[in-house]
Design goal:
Helix content is about 40%, strand content about 15%. The chain is an alpha+beta fold and about 200 residues long. The termini are far apart.
Length: about 200
């Protein structure tokens, strides 16, 4: 099973550097490598609402008195969260439910609904990543290490471009674009509801 150390080793192999034996000590800069890995992985997870990094949470309702006319306050999870909430949900039984009648202040949701859920993007380990995402992160990490360990900016630029494309693509090109496309293939297509589509209804009538 692939883990953080495997990602670090793959990155070190790309630049011919000695890989650490573990990520818990400074032997071969293990702790430093873990910090670099964590930064690279979290940045990559923030690029896209990855299906493998999403969790559905029922939000806890707080007892404190709301302000600004709202009736309820709910607390968003904060542990291992990558980026806010990808989606707030009023009724999880409804396909593609997307609740928008709320205000977010910090990690709190103000609304007039007593029960809320949220799809949260969280930090997950490489054992849950798709292979293309793992390849992109290890390649990007190799670019970072090439600059940090060997001051080899030419190799660093080449690897970062391979991982994320050019600057105009905002880190969503290269291997990362392939990973985003692959993740999209694993997500079921939204079904067209014939009753809500006038053209389909007219054609079938």
């Amino acid at each position: 099973m692939i883990d953080e150390l495997e990602i670090v080793r793959a990155a070190c192999n790309r630049i011919g550097a000695d890989a650490p034996e573990d990520l818990t000590s400074e032997l071969y800069s293990g702790v430093t490598a873990l910090r670099a890995y964590t930064l690279e992985a979290r940045a990559a997870l923030a690029l896209h609402p990855w299906s493998f990094a999403q969790e559905l949470h029922q939000l806890s309702r707080l007892t404190e008195h709301p302000i600004a006319g709202y009736q309820c306050i709910h607390q968003l999870p904060v542990k291992d969260v990558i980026i806010g909430a990808d989606r707030v949900i009023n009724d999880p039984s409804i396909e593609d439910d997307h609740f928008t009648a709320y205000k977010k202040f910090g990690t709190k949701i103000y609304s007039n609904v007593e029960e809320l859920f949220a799809v949260m993007r969280v930090q997950v380990g490489p054992h849950l990543w798709n292979p293309l995402f793992a390849k992109a992160v290890s390649t990007g990490l190799a670019g970072f290490l090439a600059e940090a360990l060997a001051s080899d900016s030419k190799t660093a630029d080449r690897l970062i471009h391979e991982a994320y494309g050019d600057a105009r693509e905002e880190r969503r090109g290269g291997l990362m674009r392939a990973a985003i496309n692959a993740d999209g293939y694993t997500t079921p297509n939204r079904k067209m509801r014939m009753g809500e589509n006038l053209l389909t209804a007219a054609y079938l009538s």
